[in-house]
Design a protein that fits this description.
alpha/beta, Aspartate Aminotransferase, domain 2, binds pyridoxal-5'-phosphate, 2 domains, two-stranded parallel ribbon, seven-stranded mixed β-sheet, Aspartate Aminotransferase, domain 1
């Protein structure tokens, strides 16, 4: 039966992990994998999570299934974190949702919902470029996909005029996938004015925004990072948000995320919940629980929440400091390339905008690892490696 099955090529990012692991160079730097790292290169368990685990161990008395919807307190807490408890949609009970296995699970179940709603009459538009996994996650549902212009490689910023020109052509048979903040892979985020314009277009033309929010708090602050989403929520009736707790709670392996759907009435929200629960049932059946319980404890306990916010803010600060640190070092070296985008972009990622050959030179000659696209995980830098990386960039760019 499996005779005709060809092995697929290895995932390039996973290959990078192995190559980095096997590299004996003591100065090696991993800027490839998209996980937060501290100054020593470690991905820590956040202190609020460690405390929540202790609390949970004390009170958990069963490992029976919960439900396809997951931990209720978690879903409610995340709704407030994203939309705010004072938002009209939240107060009216127009936002429904369920816990999902990570942000990926949310993207997938959200796409399943769209497939049910529109059958084949829907195209999902993603930014060019977008996070590589968006494409297989959405395509697997059979929905059509296309791209909208997004990134201006010259300036390292969003080319909103080009994006808006595409949005102007869309209607009710279109869904637009937006990155809530900390765009992956470019780090170039929509401005608040851009979000306002998107809301105006969506309201007028009827396309549905589907926001992928995988980095809340790692850009410009927990509240600031969802300003665009909150504006959309106030100005349009329907939207979908996929959230992830992998990065901002450090719960990568607990697979903790949520799918949140804003509708026009509580009645519709109830109907949507039955649909997404059934989609979950047909996919993995029951929600994971553990990560949801931990986040629930943190969001509903003032002390833990304060710990979490403080640590998350420090993580975001570290990323910003590394961005300005690297910019300073490259500017000191008079490299023939403008890197000022490093400090205007947000979050963990930036596209360096160097060629694949230069990326390979960095890997082969300096043991600095990054994706072929030249996407770097800024959190993979450390204050100690900045000089080394800047020297290497100078050498390969000259
Ligand atoms: C843009 C984006 N969306 C969603 C995710 C989902 O992550 P997870 O499924 O690990 O929660 C990621 C993870 O890297 C991401 O970068």
């Amino acid at each position: 039966m499996f005779d005709h099955l060809n092995a697929l090529p290895a995932d390039p990012l996973l290959g990078l992990i192995t190559a980095f692991h096997n590299d004996p160079n003591p100065q090696k730097v991993d800027l490839g994998v998209g996980v937060y790292r501290d100054e020593s290169g470690h991905t820590p368990i956040m202190s609020a999570i460690a405390k929540a685990q202790t609390i949970h161990l004390e009170i958990e008395d069963s490992k029976t299934y919960i439900s396809p919807a997951g931990v209720e307190g978690f879903v409610d807490g995340v709704k407030q974190l994203v939309f705010s408890k004072d938002s009209a949609a939240y107060k009216d009970g127009r936002i429904t949702g369920l816990q999902t296995p990570g942000g990926c699970g949310a993207l997938r179940i959200g796409s399943e919902l769209l497939k049910r709603l529109k059958n084949d009459n829907l195209t999902v538009w993603v930014s060019d470029p977008t996070w590589a996994n968006h494409i297989p996650l959405i395509k697997a549902t059979g929905l059509e996909m296309g791209t909208y212009s997004y990134f201006d490689a010259e300036t390292g910023a969003v080319n909103f005029d080009a994006m808006d020109a595409k949005l102007a052509t869309l209607g009710p048979s279109d869904m637009v996938l937006l990155h809530g903040c900390c765009h992956n892979p470019t780090g170039a985020d929509l401005s608040f004015e851009n979000w306002q314009q998107i809301a105006t277009r969506a309201a007028k033309q009827g396309f549905i925004p589907f926001v992928d929010l995988a980095y809340q708090g790692l850009g410009n602050g927990i509240e600031q990072d969802v300003k665009g989403i909150r504006y959309l929520s106030e100005h349009i009736d329907e939207m979908i948000v996929a959230t992830s707790c992998s990065k901002n709670f450090g719960l990568y392996r607990e697979r903790t995320g949520s799918l949140l759907v804003q509708t026009t009435s509580q009645k519709q929200a109830n109907a949507v919940l039955t649909q997404i629960q059934e989609a979950a049932r047909a996919s993995y059946s029951m929600s994971p629980a553990y990560g949801g319980y931990l986040v629930d404890h943190i969001l509903h306990n003032d002390g833990l929440r304060n710990d979490w916010e403080t640590e998350l803010n420090a993580m975001a600060r570290r990323i910003k400091d590394l961005r300005s640190g690297l910019l300073e070092k490259v500017q000191q070296r008079n490299i023939d390339k403008d890197f000022s985008f490093l400090t205007t972009q947000n979050g963990m990622f930036s596209l360096l905008g160097i060629s694949k050959e230069q990326v390979h030179l960095l890997r082969d000659d300096y043991a600095i690892y990054m994706a072929d696209s030249s996407r770097i995980n800024v959190a993979g830098l450390s204050t100690n490696s900045l000089e080394y990386v800047a020297d290497a960039l100078k050498a390969v760019i000259s």
